[in-house]
Amino acid sequence: MAQTEKKGGLLRKSSASKKPLKEKVVLMYDEVFTTEDPSKCNPRFWEELFLMKVNLEYLEGKLEALDGEELMKIKDNINCLFQHCIQALGEEHPIRVVNALQTLCALIRGVHQKNKSTSGFDIINMLVGFDKAELCMKNLMESLDSLLCAEGSESLKSLCLKLLLCLVTVTDNISQNTILEYVMINSIFEAILQILSSPLSRREHGYDAVVLLALLVNYRKYESVNPYIVKLSIVDDEATLNGMGLVIAQALSEYNRQYKDKEEEHQSGFFSALTNMVGSMFIADADEKISVQTNEAILLALYEAVHLNRNFITVLAQSHPEMGLMTTPTSPIPTTPVTPLGTTPPSSDVISSAELPLDADVQTSNLLITFLKYSSIVMQDTKDEHRLHSGKLCLIILTCIAEDQYANAFLHDDNMNFRVNLHRMPMRHRKKAADKNLPCRPLVCAVLDLMVEFIVTHMMKEFPMDLYVRCIQIVHKLLCYQKKCRVRLHYTWRELWSALINLLKFLMSNETVLLAKHNIFTLALMVVNLFNMFITYGDTFLPTPSSYDELYYEIIRMHQNFDNLYSMVLRLSTNAGQWKEPASKVTHALVNIRAIINHFNPKIESYAAVNHISQLSEDQVLEVVRSNYDTLTLKLQDGLDQYERYSEQHKEAAFFKELVRSISINVRRNLAFNTLSQELLLKEFSTIS
To answer: Which portions of this protein are annotated as coiled-coil regions (predicted)?
Structure first.
């Protein structure tokens, strides 16, 4: 018997004498693509169509093959198909519902694809017709809402979310997607919340639901009242917010786990041996090889939750088992195709393991710790555009957290101590820190560690000025809270001071190159004012009097850097160039630092001369400092503990517009044919009752 092969909607026998035969569904599609009403000759046409397995590839290809004029000729049939799809969503037989959902996906994508050309026809008119658009879209959204909220098939819910993601992301710029007006009017917000509040639904669909919500929140967010923004900002149901937090934590944990696995592979492999042998010349290459795709979609969801909903701040500190320490499943985790921005959801194994009850022997974690670990990975390499965007978004999220009173309360809580293992960039002049020796400390210490790590590791030719500014602002906001609430944090402040002084040194060494691209005086002023904050208010928040002495020791020890900075800003502030005003601000800000240097240096030299000591020890310098405080005169500087609060609309609108465009493109790419495959669905609905 001759074998039957299937290709592109054609059935053909291997015998060359026979003509290719088309699948019945393909023949029916061809009837839709004529100017005649297909139900004229066959009254049961639409009923039969939705019993046929959808051929997505053929249907989308057929739409793409037509030009705008040809498509307009069959508009009535396209409208009819769209409307019958919506009607089929109310059918009892699940196979009809599945086929209708997939047909809608193909129609929406195919018609939108045509709109990229210059044909100029209106999408809504092409799909449903202006006269019926409002009612049809209302029925569609109500049907999807019912399917998502029903206790029926999880596969159907998954397909509904895929259709909604398809609907939202068909245009690169989601704010230009006019169909979303109907998604705004006929809200599915409550259905999304229901998915997030139920453990079973969350495990199956949480990722898609969270990404969908993040995208819907960004539809015309600066131009009109977006109901999803309004509703998200007032959610106060604990189960829902915790559910959303868990989905985000699991996705970020999966990223951290993948990175750690790749890192361990490299450390144990031949490449690691070669790197150790040759030295650090291959470090950059090694980093590139162990990079894992960033996940900006889930990061955007975290940002919107933190930025819009004050109740979500409590979720950041909710304890759960350390996901990386959970026992791994015995069966291998199925691999998914890697897509840019990591839009593939985490495996269900990771999700289910994370919702186990707490074990006394398992290290507890929380969303904030998971996020800090994620940030420490993506912020290592900012040369890649996606990582740069991810790094910037991480710092924006941390900025929102650093401004929040409640967040600061748990960040600085002495009773909430955690061991946070941040990833550190390989550098020639330092050894890799041993993970086991990490102390348990308040969470703010991990935030400060992350900021110090960034400051130390990004002094390079392609200087990320914007990220440095955000980094210093976060440190400043945390200090403002400590000063205001008189929190004496036991932290290794010397590491921060040393990093800041080295940053000033870098700015001076690369003055010419950097000034061609950046106003380095804005950053220099912020760094100097951090020191002024410590000098003026340090006695209220530094842990011990000796910490304050050590601050003075560091300023005196590194006085040459401050002297050089003063010389540079004085030179530029006395010239009539473009940098006169910003440089003069730094000159004025240095007044107390220079007073400290000019007051203590002669006394240290005198002490050395009297005691015939060529080089003083740290203890001897500190002794001189302590005994000469009373004769030091400092000027009171205003506004050191004031800052401008974060504002998205005025300063970040362009960044978020580009970020959402990038996420939309990648979510759409990830909704490939394989993710809409019917095989599993048809197995589930193999019989029609």
So the answer is: none
| Top-confidence residue, 283 or 464 | 464
CA gap 472, 646 in Å, rounded: 14
Q: What are 132-170's pLDDT values in tens digits?
A: 899 999 999 999 999 999 887 888 899 999 999 999 998
Q: What is the DSSP string of 439-497?
A: PPEEHHHHHHHHHHHHHHH--SSS--HHHHHHHHHHHHHHHHHHHHHT------HHHHH
Question: Can you say how many angstroms the Cα of residue 207 is from the centroid of all Cα atoms in its chain?
Answer: 13
* Tens digits of residue pLDDT in 377-415: 999 888 888 889 999 999 999 999 999 999 999 999 999
Residue type, position 467, single letter: L
Cα separation, 150 vs 191, in Å, equals 10
Distance between start and end Cα atoms, the chain:
34
What residues have CB less than 8 Å from 333, skipping those under 6 apart? 347, 349, 350
- Alpha carbon separation from 316 to 7, 131, 302, 303, 450 (Å, rounded): 51, 47, 10, 12, 17
Residue 288 falls inside a structural domain:
no
| Run of H or E residues at 124 | helix 123-127
Cα 438 to Cα 419: distance, rounded to the nearest angstrom: 6
SS3 annotation, 218-264: CCCCCCCCCHHHHHHHHCCCHHHHHHHHHHHHHHHHHHHHHHHHHHH
42: helix, strand or coil: coil
If residue 7 lies in a helix (H) or strand (E), which one and from where to where? strand 4-7
Domains of the chain: total: 3
Has residue 336 been placed in a domain? no
- Residues 465, 539, single domain; the answer is no
Range of the domain at 400: 293-320+363-427+437-479
**3-state SS, residue 320:** strand
Across the range 312-336, mean pLDDT stands at 57
Question: Is 330 among the domain residues?
Answer: no
E strand or H helix at 588:
helix 580-589
Q: Mean pLDDT for the chain?
A: 84
pLDDT at 336 over 60: no
CB 52 within 8 A of CB 3: no
Q: How far apart are CA 468 and CA 379, in angstroms?
A: 11
Do the domain assignments include residue 12? no
- Sorted by sequence, the CB contacts under 8 Å of residue 460 that are 6+ apart come out as none
